[in-house]
Amino acid sequence: MRLGIDVGGTNTDAVLVAGRTVLASAKRPTTDDVSSGIVNATRAVLDAAGVSPWAVSSVMIGTTHFVNALVERKGLLGVGVLRLAGAAGEALPPMSGWPDDLKRCIGATSFQLPGGYEFDGQENTAFNEDAVRDAARELRRKGLQSVAISCVFAPINRSMEQRAAALVKEVAPDMSITVSSALGRIGFLERENATIMNASLSKMARHVMASFTSAFGELGIHAPLYVSQNDGTLISADYAAQYPVLTLGSGPTNSMRGAAFLTGIQDAIVMDVGGTTTDIGALVNGFPRESSIAVNIGGVRTNFRMPDILSIGLGGGTRIHLDADGQLIDIGPDSVGYRLSQEAYMFGGSTLTASDIAVKAGQANFGNPARVPDLRPGVMEKILAGFRNIFEDGIDRMKTAAADVPVVLVGGGSVLVPNELKGAARVLRPEHAAVANAVGAAIAQIGAEVDRIVAYDNEDRATALQDIEREAAERAVAAGADASTVRLVDVEETFLSYMPGNTVQIRAKVVGDLAVSAA
Amino acid sequence: MSHTKRTLTLEDVADLARGCAFLGSGGGGDPHTAFMEIEAALGEGGAIELIELESLPDDAFVAPCGWIGAPTISAEKLPSGREALQGLRKLEEITNRRVDAVFPVEIGGSNGLAALLLALRSGLPVVDCDGMGRAFPESQMVIFNIRGQQASPAILTDDKGNCVVIETVDNVSEERLARAAAVTLGGSCHLIEYCASAREMKANALRGTISDALRIGRGIRAARENGRDPFHGLFEALRASPHFDQAGVLFDGKIVDLQRETRNGFSVGRAVIDAFGGGQRLEVEFKNENLIARLDGQVRALVPDIISILDRETAETIVTECLKYGQRVKVVGASAPRALRSAESLAVLGPDAFKLPGPYRSIAELNGWK
């Protein structure tokens, strides 16, 4: 059976899943060291299910640890940047457009070196071993521990980045190395940004993964350890230790994947109603629809594959503002957040929250509804209608077609949502919805993506698509997928404007189940 | 006669980028990278001076410039920053003349900012004009070609320092050669073409289009900052322009389908937008730029008039490469400059040139705005 863990800012959730059944779940506070919270939640879930640690065949973890480190600028390493680009990009040095405080934190020792490719795979300028060695020596001399290597058009040919990495290793064997080709897409600056961010997290990532491993060792669980990445698929803990940025967006993705699993629905709107906000996303073919705009993390533009999430300011802790006459002024946008259990009326506090209203209206069954003061006639109805409007508007914004769609509710605040909503074919409240994130982690598959530019005038379209799909499948198998289960989930073809020859950018994404030998 | 001359601030450049994106009619590429280059270059010192065409003596020598290639490629292979100046120096060498000022050959999309960077590198002023009034896919679709100016000698330069001098007998050959050379050199090159005396430019160039783009970008931003509808800011700016004064919202809705297909040798795309709550439907067909908009099958806007798809909350333009299912948008139409709507211009850049059903009818006529 699989153990799924979600390490959130407040709680660490654990679930045990066997086949398509959730056996048990547990929620424990997240701890500063992360690992003891994981140990506590895991012990609790094993106890609840009455199973022994050796019954766990694989462990999947989703964590917000690294994204928080970037946003809070905590524990980041100084980074040296080797850019293999010839003269290309001299107009825009590494870390262009970054916030000054983050730049200061990470430093900016960079080298613009010969190398790089053109869109058709030819070399931009020849690779120069001596130049790379000299740069590596300089980084070592400066005492830097981590290097980011970015090469123009690396997504279509990784070999120059690999050669550079090997040379750096020769010169400075202890240096952490991040190559941009491991981080995906065409779009140089955004990919280089991700590479630098990754390099700055590398020491912390090794440390966190080691603490995960020791936590499970302490528990007697010796199953392989995986970490969820932004698109909801898994990477091994070893790989996550090398590429922590791949995990930055896993939170919302896991909750949506969990919702799909718990309901068996592949296409739906998922609403994760938390304490402060509601995150709304669209499931397409069982996966979150990805954001089309550049994702900004800690003030830096990146090209991460992130789910397209609409965050609206209504959650269980949202404050309800009444005037002196007891008439409704506003719903939110402020929230009591995690202090709900002290500040809400129903828990003995003196703040009117969205949860108080839900309880008073009989939509939810927790706390003490008698503690919630009576409202003026008609005010309750007005507030409930306000909730409804906010949720219905959110659904409409995320829908892609006029027809009604199923809406799946997850998260602790989902009691605020009425059972019938405009635009919703039906509203589903699956069992275990409160731990949907951990479920999403537990059921995740292995994925891989390939990004290419192809001219259909020179290369047959069907052959090109086949080649790209095969390469993606090979990558998935290398990452631990069972070859017989690998399937194509997405192909995106974009014709390049102003290029002759029917030139297209193709992205193919495959997923597969964890190979049995690894499970 | 007094001539205004102004120095552009970084905030002006950001506004200009927003306005250029709108005038791109969906094409010309996202000006974001060009903006970042200018930001970096301004940080090293220097100033961008915007001057009026009238302020130049007739015998001044001016150079239109821009980039040729694919935006997707230029987002991966970034410029060295020396391409434009190298081209300018080569032009001066082969013509044996000093260039007095530069300007964007195309105001729409990222090319609207290209001349600013050259101005910073060369110390030359930027003239407040362009040759297209929007974005077009091919370099002969420019008022200078229509009025009989020569594209040659054209200078193409790349990131590595390669330089191609193009001399052709006609302007369509210049476009073909330049594009083929740009592809050979990696798909993203700087191009200086249609260089001429200020006298010729005064007769032909579309004047004030940089100011127009600036006003558009500023109007949208200022409205947002003041809590007003950014579309009001956009339309105030458009109506204040002599070129784009007939403008309005063609449609408000959500993208429900995106299709791409190959037709008549063009790769053509189509965005289908449904009104909220169903009912009416707008279809926008694009080939690099948005070319035609049909409301329930009836044509409502046709190239060369501008058709831009904007985020309905922020009024930021969404270029064709970034259109996605589910986006909530307003489609805005605006008249093309009058010079582009003459019979001789329409033959080069009207519906026929894109193998679209014609004849051209103005956006004002199609929407009853007159």
Automatic annotation (TrEMBL), chain A:
Q: Residue limits of the Hydantoinase A/oxoprolinase domain?
A: 191-362
Q: In the record, what lineage is assigned to the organism producing the protein?
A: Bacteria, Pseudomonadati, Pseudomonadota, Gammaproteobacteria, Steroidobacterales
Entries under Pfam families matching the protein: Hydant_A_N, Hydantoinase_A
The Hydantoinase/oxoprolinase N-terminal domain sits at 2-171
- Which protein, by its recorded name, is this? Hydantoinase/oxoprolinase family protein
Q: Which InterPro entries match?
A: ATPase_NBD, Hydant_A_N, Hydantoinase_A, Oxoprolinase-like
TrEMBL record, chain B:
Name the InterPro entries for this protein. S-Me-THD-like_C, S-Me-THD_C_sf, S-Me-THD_N, S-Me-THD_N_sf
| One Pfam family this sequence matches | S-Me-THD_C
Question: Domain S-Me-THD-like C-terminal spans what residues?
Answer: 171-361
Q: Which sequence ranges are marked TM in the entry?
A: none
Q: Which Gene3D superfamilies match?
A: CV3147-like, CV3147-like domain
For the S-Me-THD N-terminal domain, which residue ranges apply?
A: 11-167
Name this polypeptide is given: DUF917 domain-containing protein
Can you name the source organism?
Steroidobacter gossypii
What are the top taxonomic ranks of the organism? Answer: Bacteria, Pseudomonadati, Pseudomonadota, Gammaproteobacteria, Steroidobacterales
